[in-house]
Amino acid sequence: MVGIINKYNERNSSYELLRILCMLFVVGGHLIGKGMQITYDNTLLGGGGEDYTLSRLLYCFCTVAVSTFILISGYFGINFNWRKILKIWFSVLFFSWVIVIYKIIGKNDIKGCLPYFLPIISNEFWFISCYFILCGLSPLLNKLVDSLSKRQLKQLVLLNCVVFYGWATFNYIFNFRQFVPDFGGGIINFAILYLIGRYIKLYGLVARSSFFWTCAFIGNTFLMVLLELLYSYILHFGFTSFENINSVFVVANAIFLFLAFKNLHFHNCYINYLAVYCLAVYIIHFNDVGMPFLTDFFDLKNLHGIGILWSVLFIPPIVYLVCVIIEFIRRTLCGRMENYILDAIAQRWKLN
User: Fold this and answer.
1) How far is CA 72 from CA 200, 315, 340, 352, in A?
2) How far apart are CA 281 and CA 324, in angstroms?
């Protein structure tokens, strides 16, 4: 335990706590969106019903997670490290092949297991796939940032925000075809968020307190929900497009939340240690086996009213801790073999 304290006590825990919070948001968002699947009811007054309204509010808080993760990467900068990437790849392959075995033996679903043989290429874990591409592009993005003046970088970021976020949001309102039809879940959005993070690191933004940025985050979230409910009421169906991660509401919320934590400075080895497992939590819970299990185990489809709060406030921490234990066991069992493979690759290809 002393070794853990010494190893993880140096990092600023505010950013590590933000990583954990974002992963809790990811889990909560999946529980609501994939588990509950509460639909809009246009026969009810009040914009689809109480369950729908509360679920949308909670989900809108959660949508900020992916964008914030990339902002953090941009703020600190990605230094391409093939060892770290392969370690993530090992984790993905391990759990993917466990799913393959389960599907073949337990479900006799040979067709359904095919994408999990090569999960990165098949995009089964889309965030990991896109993040790997971002890691590959990061040296070029870093050189681009270094070559631009403050004014040039600001112009580039603002132009991209107008084209890829403002335009997208405008098209959502009028149901026009999207310029980039990936709803923000692609490398273009990741690259722009990375550049925004680099800009904040190098030049900062308007100096405000954490309380100010937290209020901005909460206020913008309520505004997003109110506009969606109003638009849903007008259209007579559930309008949720502002929750896509290329919406100006979500991007603004990511910046607000990041700046709120940026002003905090403290050190906690336990927070730093738990944050190391963020990606593993995503891999373990969000797949064709994990999500159905969580849906049934927590009886998500029968949560109503105030009980819906469980999906964001109480269940995600439980899921996070269980996934940490599972990944810890995997690393304990497979760590030596993985290091042996990495050392062999380094020796074979003369890599540092």
Assistant:
1) 10, 25, 31, 26
2) 7
pLDDT at residue 153 greater than cutoff 90: yes
Question: How many angstroms from the chain centroid is the CA of residue 97?
Answer: 23
- CA separation for the pair 60, 244 (Å, rounded): 9
| pTM (2 d.p.) | 0.93
What pLDDT shows up at residue 55? 92
Q: How far apart are CA 38 and CA 17, in angstroms?
A: 30
Which residue, among 28, 56, 8, has the nearest Cα to 221 in the 3D structure? 56
Sole residue written with tokens 């879940």: 185
The dihedral built from the CA positions of residue 90, 94, 35 and 54, taken in this order, carries a sign that is negative
- Among residues 19, 71, 30, the alpha carbon closest in space to that of 254 is found at 71
Tokens, residue 135: 């890691």
Residue 124 sits at φ, ψ, to 5 deg, of -65, -40
What are the DSSP calls for 98-142, one per residue?
HHHHHHHHTS--HHHHGGGTSTTTTTTTHHHHHHHHHHHHHHHHH
Could you tell me which of 169, 196, 177 has the C-alpha nearest to residue 77? 196
Q: List all residues 6 or more positions away from 113 whose beta carbon is below 8 Å from its beta carbon.
A: 99, 100, 103, 104
Amino acid present at 59: Y
DSSP 34: I
How confident is the model over 249-291, as pLDDT tens digits? 999 999 999 999 998 988 999 999 999 999 999 999 999 899 9
pLDDT digits (tens, 9 = 90+) for 119-138: 888 888 999 999 999 999 99
